[in-house]
Amino acid sequence: MSLRIGSRDGVEVELLPLGATVRSVWVTGSDGVRRDVVLGYADPADYRAGHDYLGATVGRYANRIAAGRLLVDGVEHRLARNDRGQHLHGGPGGFHSRIWEVVAHERHRVRLALESPAGEEGFPGRLRVELDVSVAGASVALEYRAETDAATVVNLTNHSYFNLDGDLPGRDVRDHVLSVPASRYTPVDDVGIPTGPGRDPDVEVAGTPFDLRAGIRLDGVADIDHDLLPDGAGLREVARLISSAGGLALSVRSDQPGLQVYAGSKLDGSTTSRAGHPITAYAGVALEPQLPPDSPSRPGSGGAVLRPGERYRHRMAWRFGPA
């Protein structure tokens, strides 16, 4: 089962209830060519297996929690250690693997919902989640909301991989230009856990390969899988991606403090795209607005813990236009 929404400007989105997944986003570039600009699997079974999380909603907690050890109000909870000894993206039974309820489906809007029981993948609290996806003009808007009956942690995002040239053989994103208006980033070790000390493990990007403020071709940071901290607060532009050939640009907006940038270096060709090509390294770049990695272990990181009576909210948007 798939759900389609579209706008008069020709931006069309296909979603799957499995994983609240964005399976395709069709956009027409300034060259007049219509392209699907996100990676999608040919075999629907690959979505359930969670290979690389293509287009999926990841949660209950996106990114990594060190050693799968979660402390909430002094109580320790043990989570799955599903990535090199760390907890990643909610565990193997995370939200990417669940069938979401279709609450509403209109021409330009979809609402999906999910209930995650207390103890699922080790997390405390029963969590009720909603996702609204809507299309207006040249923009796709996503809004996540969540409420809980006990203190827990929440960090939700969409894990789409973008290739603004479309799914073409031999075309990858290393000649795309990416800019991120971030003065700071989070250094991590070889398993993706922050290495900085104490309350503020983040450092200035100046003089590092992660200074993307002026824009850089992705082949200059091809191994990036890091969290950058876009300047400012509230809903703002956190990234801009420009295609090499199609005359297409993507503006990513979010109200979250972090943006995980992953250039797809570990995509290994073991799965096949909807166009019939192996999904190989650098086939797409993931731009994932979220909280920084291992935020529950960082005192004062803010926003990681959700309590009864509170509402989690994450707004993000993709706006397409000429390069």
Automatic annotation (TrEMBL):
Gene Ontology molecular function, alphabetical: aldose 1-epimerase activity; carbohydrate binding
GO CC, one annotated term: cytoplasm
EC number: 5.1.3.3
SUPFAM superfamilies documented for this protein: Galactose mutarotase-like (SSF74650)
Protein residues bound to beta-D-galactose: N63, R64, H159, S160, Y161
Annotated active site: H159, E288
Region listing for Disordered, in residue ranges: 288-308
Organismal lineage: Bacteria, Bacillati, Actinomycetota, Actinomycetes, Propionibacteriales
Organism, scientific name: Nocardioides mangrovicus
Protein name: Aldose 1-epimerase
Family stated for the protein in its record: Belongs to the aldose epimerase family.
PANTHER family: ALDOSE-1-EPIMERASE (PTHR10091), GALACTOSE MUTAROTASE (PTHR10091:SF0)
